[in-house]
Amino acid sequence: MSDFFSGFWSIYIAVISLGGIAWCIYLLFSQRAWLKKDVEIVENTGHVWDGDLTELNNPVPRWWTVMYLGLCIVALGYLVLYPGLGSYEGQLGFTAGKQLQQQQQAFNERIKPVYERFQAMPIPDIAADQEAREIGQRLFLNNCAQCHGSDAKGGRTFPNLTDTDWLWGGEPEQIMQTITKGRHGMMPPWKAAIKPAQASDIAQYVRSLSGLAHDPLRIVPGKRGFDTFCVACHGAEGKGNTALGAPNLSDDIWLYGSSAATIIETILEGRDNRMPGQEHILTPEQIRLLTAWVWGQSN
Questions:
Q1: Type and span of the H or E element at 53
Q2: How far apart are CA 217 and CA 222, in angstroms?
Q3: Four-way CATH pick for 189-269: 3.40.50.300, 3.30.300.130, 2.60.40.790, 1.10.760.10
Q4: Residue 35: pLDDT over 60
Q5: Residues near 158 by Cβ (< 8 Å), separated by ≥ 6?
Q6: pLDDT in tens, 82-96
Q7: Percent of the chain at pLDDT above 70?
Q8: Which of 106, 182, 205, 271 gives 20 to 30 Å between its CA and that of 113?
């Protein structure tokens, strides 16, 4: 599929490509003495260096012209067979994406025997296997460390995978589902229903749930607002819901930060966080070993 958002650019690139080749062919033919054009055999340009070196203007050798004409023919053949003229896909239908996919399939077939002995093993047993841990760690560093860090301890907006706090559940099946299909964690914005002053009260109550400094005089109105707007997802005690990806608000783990201002921003503006699924990048065997490695970090 073409990446051009307008057909003009496809035509523009095709014209530039073909026009460049046509100009080269014209230039080569127009400058050849053996095509009955009057060109002096040797022309002195008058430029002299060091008193002995004189610049001459000799006609282009025939072999040089023939070589470049051949290259122009090769270029035309390339543009017929391969994509190079805007959105034209070429007779061979080649794309870098297809080539990458073929290389990945060949690589997966080559390494398939490495994963065979782990296929029937439960995830905890895989996590206890030294070879499996080494493979899982390499898979993590190649595919997950960009967001979760090389030590898997995450950062702001990226969960820590070495603790026991799991937004979507920390059982092997849940972790495998997360890696395979990805997750979309979203908290809707409440600014249309909650006023900033009320959001500030709720923030004070939420901070009290995890033992953070708070204003005790605002706990009662804050709890009232929490019970009205937040209980459905986070639960009556604020311990969250893994089925919804709603975080536990009663511990000391905060994905976006625990300051009152950050909590108020979360309440009013909401949050939208996505983890992409890896099923189109990793094989099922690789996902099993990666699941075991991630599970093993907190078990």
A1: strand 53-57
A2: 9
A3: 1.10.760.10
A4: no
A5: 147, 148, 149, 255
A6: 998 988 889 998 988
A7: 94
A8: 182
